[in-house]
Design goal:
Blueprint lengths: L1 H8 L2 H57 L9 H4 L3 H9 L4 E3 L5 E4 L15 H9 L4 E8 L2 E11 L5 E10 L3 H49 L16 H61 L7 H30 L7 E4 H9 L7 E5 L5 E4 L1 H17 L10 E8 L2 E8 L33 H11 L4 E6 L3 E9 L16
Parallel strand pairs: 7-9
Antiparallel strand pairs: 1-2, 1-5, 3-4, 4-5, 6-8, 9-10, 10-12, 11-12
Helix pairs in contact: 2-6, 6-7, 7-8, 9-10, 10-11
Length: 508
Amino acid sequence: MAAKFKMSMLSLRTRIFLSMIVLVLIASVLMASISIIQFKNESKVYHQERLERKETAINEHINYVLANTTYPLSANNLDLIFKDKIHELSQIHGLEINIFGLDGKLLKSSKASFSVDPVAPPIPKYILKLVQSSIEKRYVDIKNINGVKNRSSYSIIKDEKFKPLGILNIPYVEDDSFYEAELQNFLIKLGQVYAFMLVIAFGVAYFLSTYITKSLKTISDKLRDTSLDQKNEKIVLEANSKEINLLIRAYNGMVNELEESAIKLAQSEREEAWREMAKQVAHEIKNPLTPMRLTVQSFQRKFDPNDPDLKQKLNDYSKTLIQQIDTMSSVASAFSNFASMPAQQNETLNVVNVVELTLDIFNEDYIVFESEEKEIISKMDRAQLIRVITNLVKNAIQSIPENQVEKTILVSVKKVENNVRILVKDNGIGIDPKHWPRLFERFYRVEKSRNRHEGGTGLGLSIVKHILELHGQNITMRSTVGVGTKFTFGLEKSSKNIQLSSRGVPIR
C-alpha cells in the first residue's frame, strides 16, 4: 500500500521515464533467461543425438565383428569374440563399452584394468525388463552423479537371424564445458549490448517523457492560474497527441464558459447590489419624512395667529424641517458620489503633498499632519486618494463629541519597506467591538458617534474600502472604547526617479 502511494506521488514524466527503463531491464533479463534455457535445451538435444549416433556406429561395428568372427555365434562366446576387439572399438569411437549377458552379468569391458570378476555389479533387473519389453529393445538410463548428468545406453546385441546374444552398454558422461563457455561468452556480449541499450534508453526515455508531458505541463500551469475573477487566456498549442488536443479544446471551452459565467455573475451581483442599495436609500430618505410630516401636522394643530411666541415657534419648525431636508440631501449626495465613482486612473503622485493639501480644506485646528519625508512617490488615482483621506478625517471628526475638551486627529504618512503607510487616528469615543464586522457596510452607522444631524450617511467607510480594493489594497481598523480609533491603509511605493504627473502637484 505504501509503495503504491509513493508511486502515485511521482509525476507523470518520472513514471514514463522509469517505465521505459524498467521495460529495458525486464527485456534484458528475459533475453538472458531465454538464452540460458535455449542453450540448455540445445545441450540436451546435442548429447542425446550424439549418444544415438555413437550407439548406432558401435552397433554397426559390432555387427561387422560378429559377421567376420571365427567363433560360433552364441551368447557363451561373446567374451571370446570381443576379447581383443572391444578395446579397439573403444579407441575408435572414444567411448567406454561394456557387454553383458542376457542375464545381466558383465562379460566384457573396455576398461584396461578390467578382468572378469564374478562379483562385478550386474544390470539392474528393472533395466533388463525395460530393455526386453521395449519395442526398440533399447533403454537409456539417466542419473546425476556429483552434479554431472550421466547417460547409460542399453541395447540388445543380435546375430544375422535377429537372435539375442547379449546386451551392449555404453556409458556417456555429458560434458557441457564447451556449451558453458559459449553461454558465458554470449551472456557477456548480451550484457554489453544491453548496457549500451540502457544508456540509449535513458536518453530516449528522458526525451520522450519531456516531449509527452510538455503539453500537459502547459495545461497544468494554465489550470492552476485559472480563476473566475480574472481574464483567463486560452491555450494556443497544437499537440501531437489526439488525447492532449481534446484536453486543450476542453480547457478552452471551459475558459469560454467561465467568461460567460463571470459576466452573468457580475451582472447578477451588480443588479442585486443596486437593488439592495436602492432599498437602503429609500429607507434613509423615508426616515426623515416621518418627522417632517409630524412637524407639519403639529404645526397645523397648534397654529394660533395670536400666540405671542408665534415667530419663535415658526423658527423652530423651520429649523427642524431644514435639518431633515439636509439629511435627505446628504443621503442623496453620498449615494450620487458612490454611484458615479469613476474608474481608477493610476497617476504618479507625491503622497505627502496630496494628503497635506487635502487636510487644508478642514478648519479644525486639532488636525495634525506628520511625515518623516517630504516626498514619497506612489501610483494612485489622485481624486480617489483625496476622497479616501477626506472620508476618514470626516469620520474621525464625527467620532469626537463636541463637548470633549481635548480633541486630536493625527494623519501620518511614512515609508515602510516598499509600501506607503497612511494612518488616520483620533481620540474620540471609540467603536464598540460589536460594530466591527459591519463597519464597512453601506449605510451602516454607529449611532453614538455619527448621527444624521452631523451629516453621517453610512457610506463614507464603504466608499473608502471600495476605492482601496480597486487599487489592490486593504484597510485595517483598531479601536478602543473611550480611547479612540485608528485606520491604517497602504499604497505601493514607486521609484523616486519617476516623474510626477499629478494635477496641481509640482513635478520634481
